[in-house]
Input
Amino acid sequence: MLKRFLMSLMLLLPAISLAEPLMVEQAVPGIYVHHGVHKDINVNYGGDIGNIGFIVGSKGVAVIDTGGSPKIGERLRDAIRKVTELPILYVINTHVHPDHILGNAAFKKDHPAFVGHEKLAAAMALRKEAYLRNQPNWVGADANGTELIPPTLAITGTQTIDLGGRTLQLTAHPTAHTNNDLTIFDTTTATLWTGDLLYVERIPAFDGDLKGWLKVIAQLRNFPAVRVVPGHGPVTTDWQSALDKEDRYLSVLLEDVRKAIKQGKSMEETIENAAQSEKGKWVLFDIVNRRNISLVFPIMEWE
Ligand SMILES: [Zn+2]
Output
């Protein structure tokens, strides 16, 4: 009996310890993107819901976001190693949300510069305790080894980094999706990584300043980009339309909540009714729209 148990355990072990490199697509030469699945951040979301990836120059690699656990980060690292042996010089975080940064620890052994918005370090410090407390609920045993690693290179305004024959323009934006949103523009291929400043297919989640976000959307339109890698959803060349769609949802949300407050409606009532004209146009609409309203309403009450 015991022997049979041990035998079956041994059969199971390789399956548990082996993790495949993440699937990545080469969007354009030197730019690789892994697409997570559209799931809400809640119990057992698994750490793999956003777009993460890397850019390869002649001197080395820049990682853009690391996923929601060291395991996902490690699998991204394995995907990089299938493409190139060049050193990993930079690990760039687009913003503080756990699905984008909690894989950072997997890259410590590469001694990269960790790069983020000038306000990212403070945002990480503020959320550290809650993120580490929730992490086992979010990703189970993959929570092992999770660390919040703040930037060693903090970006103010627009700064460039050089990967060897390839310049990345990093821009720290005013408060929008969060107060620490950073975009990455690859000048070689005119590819813009927006982080969660742009959602495609999946409903935008609010955690910053709604009016600020609408302003930043208008500014993003000025990038001479041919294609965009959004924070969630497919890579798109039709990115101006994607910004239109996002602008429309956020504007409707703003208007509906403003109207409800003016009419003296309660938050509970507003959660049921605001932005319902957008239902059916987004993945995860019900759960995330409610959460957005519950965050926007108390802020706008004091307008
Ligand atoms: Zn986010």
User: Anything to note?
Assistant: The radius of gyration is 20 Å. The CA atoms of residues 203 and 285 lie 6 Å apart. The first strand starts at residue 25 and ends at 28.
